[in-house]
Design goal:
- The chain has about 280 residues and is an alpha/beta fold.
- The chain folds into two domains: about 120 residues; about 130 residues, no CATH class.
- It has two helices and 24 strands.
- The strands form three sheets. Strands 1-4-7-10-13-16-19-22 form an eight-stranded parallel sheet, with no helix packed on it. An eight-stranded parallel sheet has the order 2-5-8-11-14-17-20-23, with no helix packed on it.
Length: about 280
């Protein structure tokens, strides 16, 4: 009986020892459940990460558009700047080439102008001074007289007279006169009279030579041709022995003219007028 009792005790002890294992199994089952739950939680995190990745992909898809748009707009600007730089460089090269090609022409023109300078010099407007040089009565000058201002000849000059201002002669001039304005009063002039302005021949003056000017008023005596681009007035006391070419002419009663009067500088074309009448 004692043997069976001991066996029973041992068996019950063994069973008791086995029971904690079941508890361990239950705990392991619980742990497994917990592991499963953690896995489920990990799956949720993965889904959240996938969602975030999706949002990130959307952002990255939008970012290239936002970032590349300025770059794309900047590239045309760079290309425009490069194009303008190339265009400016090409224009400068063309300008240099044009300058190189124009230089000989300019040199040739300069040479032509230098050759034509003596001819164009008289066309330049001279400098006119306000000073008036007076050659008094009883003074005789043998030689040419040149003045930047005006001249008043009361004496005698045996030579050419040139002045940029007005030439007034009440004496004697034996030579050609070139002036901007000519006035003779009881004077004796033997030579050509050339003026860029008006020529006035007063009463008692005698001019032996041709007269060229832009306008003329004659009250004295002239022996020579008169060539005037503008109007000519021949007063009652005037005596003209020569031809008159002008734009218009006024001859007062009492004037004496021995020569031809031609209004060749007039605006009327006389030849065409008569040719039209002949056609009719």
């Amino acid at each position: 009986m004692g043997f069976f009792k001991d066996f029973k005790d041992d068996f019950s002890q063994a069973v008791n020892e086995l029971m904690p294992g079941e508890d361990n199994l239950e705990s392991t089952d619980k742990d497994d459940d917990m592991v499963v739950n953690t896995l489920e939680d990990e799956v949720d995190v993965a889904s959240e990460l996938s969602k975030l990745d999706g949002l990130l992909e959307q952002v990255t898809k939008q970012e290239p558009v936002e970032v590349r748009t300025p770059a794309a707009s900047a590239e045309p600007q760079k290309t425009k700047e490069e194009y303008t730089q190339h265009a400016m460089a090409a224009a400068q090269e063309e300008k240099k080439m044009a300058d190189n090609t124009v230089t000989p022409v300019q040199v040739a023109q300069t040479g032509a102008q230098a050759a034509a300078a003596p001819q164009s010099a008289p066309q330049d407007k001279p400098i006119v001074s306000d000073e008036v040089s007076v050659i008094t009565e009883g003074t005789i000058i043998n030689g040419d007289v040149i003045s930047n201002g005006s001249l008043d000849i009361r004496g005698q000059v045996d030579g050419n007279v040139s002045c940029n201002g007005k030439l007034t002669v009440t004496g004697v001039v034996n030579g050609n006169s070139n002036t901007s304005e000519f006035f003779a009063d009881s004077a004796q002039v033997e030579g050509e009279v050339v003026s860029s302005g008006t020529v006035k021949i007063g009463l008692g003056s005698v001019i032996i030579g041709n007269v060229t000017s832009s306008s003329a008023v004659i009250a004295g005596a002239i022996k020579g041709d008169i060539d005037v681009q503008g109007p000519v007035v021949v007063d009652t006391s005037a005596v003209v022995m020569g031809n008159i070419k002008s734009r218009s002419v006024q001859i007062n009663n009492g004037a004496v003219i021995e020569g031809f009067c031609s209004q060749c500088y007039a605006d009327v074309d006389v030849q065409s007028l008569f040719n039209a009448k002949k056609g009719n």
